[in-house]
Amino acid sequence: MTGAPIRVVIADDEPLIRAGIRMILTSDRQIEVVAEASNGREAIELVRAHGADVVLLDIQMPVMDGLTAMAELRRAVPSARVVILTTFGERDNVLRALESGGAGFLLKDTAPAELIGAVRAAAVGDAYLSPAATRHVVDQLASGRSMARNEQARTLVSQLSTRELDVLSLLGEGLSNADAGRRLHMSEATVKTYVSRILAKLECENRVQAALLARDAGLGG
C-alpha cells in the first residue's frame, strides 16, 4: 500500500495491551497509531479529533464498552472502520459485533502479522475475521440450525461452481485465504477473488455468514 499512512486509534483499558498493539502496528511503515483510548467514549472523541481510518476496540471497557462505542462510531464517523480486538467472552459479543457492521473481529492472542493484515484490510474496505473467531462462531451456532435452514443452505450453495464449493468448504473450517490457498494449491489472491465471488452469489456480508452457510449445507470440517 502506498500513499498516506493508515491512521489508527487503539482503545483498550489496559495500558500494557495498548503498548503491545502499538509496537506491533508501528512496525509497519504504512500504519500510524495516532491516539490511544482507555474507554469507548474517549475512543469516539479521539477518532473525531484525529480522523482515524481504523479503530481497534476492546469489548470490555469502563465508561462505555466497545460494542456501544462501535454503534456510536458507525453513526458519528461512518468512514472509520472498526475492528473488535478482544479475548473470547460470550458468543453474543461476536454476533453483536458482526451484526453492528464491524470490519473485523480478532483475538488478543492474534499473531502480529494477522493484526497488521486486519488493519490493512479494514483500511481498504474489506472485512477481516480471524479464522479462530470464525470457527468459534460457526461451532457454537451450528448445533442450533434447523433442518429447514439446512435445506435452504443446500439450495443456495448449489449455484456455486465446483471450485467455489471447495473454497466455501474451507471457509466453513475457518481457514484464512492463505491457508485455503495452500490447501487448494492456489494463490492467496486467487482465493480472495473466489471468496468475493462466493459472498456475492450467496448474498453474504462477511466470511462468518458464508461459513455458517457452508456448515448448514454440510460442507466444511
TrEMBL record:
Pfam families assigned to the protein according to its UniProt record, in alphabetical order: GerE, Response_reg
Modified residue annotations for 4-aspartylphosphate: 58
Keyword Transcription regulation listed: yes
Residue ranges of domain Response regulatory in the record: 7-123
UniProt keyword terms in alphabetical order: DNA-binding, Phosphoprotein, Transcription, Transcription regulation
Gene3D superfamilies attached to this UniProt entry: 3.40.50.2300
Domain HTH luxR-type: start-end pairs: 153-218
Single biological process term from Gene Ontology: regulation of DNA-templated transcription
InterPro entries, per the entry: CheY-like_superfamily (IPR011006), NreC/VraR/RcsB-like_REC (IPR058245), Sig_transdc_resp-reg_receiver (IPR001789), Tscrpt_reg_LuxR_C (IPR000792), WalR-like (IPR039420)
GO MF annotation list: DNA binding
Name assigned to this protein: DNA-binding response regulator
Source organism (scientific name): Streptomyces inusitatus
